[in-house]
């Protein structure tokens, strides 16, 4: 009997884990790094998905020339595995330092010779951009997060070889309106904490917004990296899960507010609620804690212990007097009062509408807003909007299924919020879980997935 106890405990733990619903995590990563994260033929991102047991989706629109580029990366899977995937994605994002160099010194050695040597010796990517004055050129040296010291050594050695001062470098952070809006109140404090200089785009006038949102950071390599890390901690992040409406606990609204977590509820169907939790990425621990409370999970199940950058610890004090909730509500008030219709795609409000009468009002009334502009529009950040599947991509999936004679499954994918991009990540067990029982149909779909990936 004693030999059966470990087996019973193991089975009990497996039973508890199997009852945990999947959730969706939306994070923001500059679109310029998406191809790096995906890798050639999807090799990099497929490895991350296999290692973490999650599905990761990048916006379809980023593949189309001329289309607005989105920074969102969406991860779907069991709660405990979402955090592992977030950490892997964040660790795989490159770090790039920029500085100017005399072009004659570069030409005397040769760009290709320098690039090859530094690639083999330090494992970095080097690019040269001659300036219009014909005297200087911009040098970009890119390395990996987990080999940051090698990147710093490469910059230092390049300065020595080419007689270039590298005491001051620059980092360009291409980000979104959402990020700039919620981070702008904290820029001065980050400058004070790190000693770096930061130039941030002006988003105070919604009718006169820039086309791109680039933050420039200048200082020593340590100062620049620390400042960029703090700015990353202020990126918006969202968790989403669906629960039966009779399990919704209104007391969680107050708890979420105390944790600086924005709590948005909407009716998916008459008896299913979609819960969206948003905050700064450095506040990941509280986001997962509120999510576990929403699902009424015991403490010993799906424990999530986020691995946060040491520089993010200072953000608790920096954001103390200007929280995520306050920044979001200010934007919503500003847009409502000005009735601004010229706000671009990337700024469809960070602020989440907090339901005041869930359970006592109709499904329609729980998702409306006092401003007509939001009557039929969710107020999720555009940078996080990919947590809702892409309607255009869904239509493309329906058309694709029709071409292979499986159009009768289109409604099933729509009900499960699976678009064409998500379809290409599915495995056989995923198809079974969404309700496709026919072996022949699943085989045809899996063959189609392989073709689409190629």
From TrEMBL:
SUPFAM superfamilies with a match to the protein in the record: Eukaryotic type KH-domain (KH-domain type I), SAM/Pointed domain
Keyword set, alphabetical order: Repeat, RNA-binding
Record-level Gene Ontology MF annotations: RNA binding
Annotated Gene Ontology cellular component terms: cytoplasm
Low complexity: compositionally biased ranges: 338-348, 360-372
Family membership: Belongs to the BicC family.
Protein name: SAM domain-containing protein
